[in-house]
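Standup notes, protein team

Yesterday: finished cleaning the Sphagnum jensenii set.
Today: Protein yippee-like structure.
Blockers: none.

Input for Protein yippee-like:
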Amino acid sequence: MGRLYLIQLDGRIYSCKHCRSHLANSDELLSRSFHCRHGKAYLFNNVVNVSVGPQEDRMMTTGRHTVADIFCNCCQQLVGWKYELAYEKREKYKEGKFILERAKMIDGDGSDFYLDTHQVGSDADDE
């Protein structure tokens, strides 16, 4: 097996809750108004230290999308997904973007995010 090289980010960062590997810089944050089956989720333009799983079609609250789960490179925990394809024109802005689940990350000062118990529209897996 080869060595694992992880990218270290500067500034305010979001890290994996399980192993503290850096996942994204706050400058890459596009939206905090997404949801997943575990609660809130954030949309990012770019993330680091993740591997992308196989693509699959999922029906979400905003329509059908082709997505791929993303996993932390260090601990292999599922941390979110990548939007590969949006079938509806109004959802095309998501293509190539990443969702990180809030319950799976901590912010730059090491504090956990709280979990909301309700959802208010946006994407969530209906599975």
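Follow-up from PR in the comments: The chain is about 0% helix and 45% strand.
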